[in-house]
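Board notes, transcribed. Complex of a protein with guanosine-5'-triphosphate.
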Amino acid sequence: MSLFSTDRRIAGPPGGARTRGVGEARRGSAHERTASPAAPSRRRGRGPSAVRAGDLAAAVHRVEDFPKARRPVVAIVGRSNVGKSTLLNRLVGRKAARASRSPGKTRGIYFYETDEGHQIADFPGTGFARVSKRERESWAGLAEELFAGGSVRLAVRLVDPRVPRSPVDGEMKKYLEQRGIPTVAVATKWDRLSARERAQATRDLEEAHGEVLPVSAKTGEGIERLRREIRLRMQGKEVTSHG
Ligand SMILES: Nc1nc2c(ncn2[C@@H]2O[C@H](COP(=O)(O)OP(=O)(O)OP(=O)(O)O)[C@@H](O)[C@H]2O)c(=O)[nH]1
Ligand SMILES: [Mg+2]
């Protein structure tokens, strides 16, 4: 499987994504210009080195863009439009990443600061057919590089409760398992489900993914629980391997 690839006919075996070609990704393309996250906000009355939750630490479109100083990272992954950027904003308490009603908004890996010692990374979505093969391969290479580097200590795997058994999500689960990345499965947009749908979705999701935390970035439901879970899972984790 090639992460971020939607077309299984062209997808290689698990782990087959290569970094080759990543350097070809052009900085400043129309995509990147429109998809760049909000610029770091001014830090009023604070020193230039003061960092606050939601500050952009790195925008990665090529391998060379990865931050040099490695910190523990929480990766937010999932299908396109599932709500990754919106959830990240809710977690950092500020509109840092750009979200959009139309899928394919996030087009690079964006690292944001948190006030808990780790960084949180927003990923491009998987399963979006309208992204070019070349771009998908470039993202797959970047993801491969990051996941192999040892800094990702937890992946928050977002799933759509209305599509509990998406094959793309199944592939992501397998991909992360194969790389030994611990994960938390999270069902997004929980506010959109009726009580009856919630009960059904819970059963279906647990069957497909094991324990799943339901959240709504819109109402805030489940967010504190997810924050606690992330904190717990990141406690004492430092970047030890590969720098
Ligand atoms: N009702 C509801 N809508 C949500 C929620 N979270 C996200 N959305 C909406 O879902 C749409 C997609 O959100 P994004 O955060 O851009 O999704 P994404 O996964 O980052 O998408 P890509 O970057 O394209 O992969 C936006 O219109 C959001 O407002 C939620 O909890 N509840
Ligand atoms: Mg996004």
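The chain has six helices and seven strands. The first helix runs from residue 30 to 35.
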